[in-house]
Amino acid sequence: MFMKNLKNFPKNFLWGASTSAYQCEGATAEGGKGKTIMDIANHGDEYCDFSVASDFYHHYKEDIALMKEMGFKSFRFSISWARVFPNGDGKVNQEGLDFYKNVIKELRASNIEPIVTIFHFDTPLALEEKGGWSNRELIVPAFEKYADTLFQELGDQVKYWLTINEQNVITLSNLKFGMFSKGKRFTATEAFNKNHVMFIANALVMANYHKNYQKKQKGLIGPAPNVAPAYANTNKPEDQIAAMNAGVMRNWLYLDAYVRGEYNPIALKYFEDKGVELDLRKGDLEILKAAKPDYIAFNYYTSMTVEHSDAEEMNKVMDQQVGFDIPGMFRSVKNQNLDKTEYGWEIDPMGLRYAFREVHERYRLPLLITENGIGVRETLNKDNTVNDDYRIDYYQKHIAAMREAISEGIDVIGYNPWTAIDLVSTHQGFSKRYGFIYIDRDEKDLKEMKRYRKKSFFWYQEMIKNNGDNIM
Ligand code: BGP
To answer: Is 66 helix (H, G, I), strand (E, B) or coil?
Structure first.
């Protein structure tokens, strides 16, 4: 876009795409799977639930064949905790484990590197009913055991592990919408203590992998937050401080704990001022310090633009994914310089380069994109395809920005946008489509669930064939 002398993408760059279990698998009551909080989520009559989704559970071979045809080098997907441990704890469900073994076998046979997320939003219901991430004594050992089982059973075939998807979005949603708790909003003390429990669980799992598996299995492990750069709305100094605050509360609080094993001091000051009582126990900081990720995976959709605010109440902006303002620290506003998707998410390819630079400056670890994409209402045209030129344009610009970051010397190891196949959006049903592959179903009418290649399918295929050399 703006740069001379672009570097090429590395030779073994992981070009692929992403999904998550509850959004694509369906078969929620098959194969011995237990219920998760997503199985009882209800986002209104207008939208479908997650019970059938893209029926990946029954179509995985066909879907992986299409990924192979596109030339994927990697595929990032998540394991449903309740498929492996129906109650979240207790006895392993062999049938559930076998499903993932088969998926991984199919990927390996297609020369596609599996990138596996251990936890992507879908807490087993049996654990949630006993407090979920608020019940540290219950959930931390259960999560450790679940992850350890995956390392033991799948670790010889998996080289890229991701611990927790978007812990920052979970925490900020708990504060603002209660997205993962049937609309129950948590107090700041509750939300940040759940978050702390996740930090501990994440660190213990990473440390276990490093100590007991890494040498033999030669894999890497890291977290997968959602990173959004924060811009100040004006050059007023107080807006610049607000942007720094937003960066901390949206990104660095989480990454500082994962990578440096410490709480960000600005976040601690906020906790103090707001009366957030963190249940920090003896030995916790040692646990955090003892674990350091091998790489940082992050999801990037958009940036945020903010200004100073003394407000006590949450900003009511809901048409923007990143309207996660924190009263007293920053307030999100619209960025007049950016276009938006039809769902109101600002499109900011240069923000991706900005995010790469910030994360690289702070942590100096290899970086992997695990989500990036555009959600659009789409229909199949008469030729059985979708002319999704907007998606091609979106990816073209984001990949160009990533190439610029690589040219600036940043170690980026792969790009796995959202998503390979159409699937159910986290809270806006099946009509919000993100895939390279169209799945012919409506919100309620499942039709035959046939798969069709969108125009972007062929564009991505060509791009991967050229290893991104044609993107600038
Ligand atoms: C991320 C989640 C994904 C996915 C994506 C798109 O936050 O990790 O699971 O849902 O956003 O969001 P949505 O489905 O709301 O459009």
So the answer is: helix
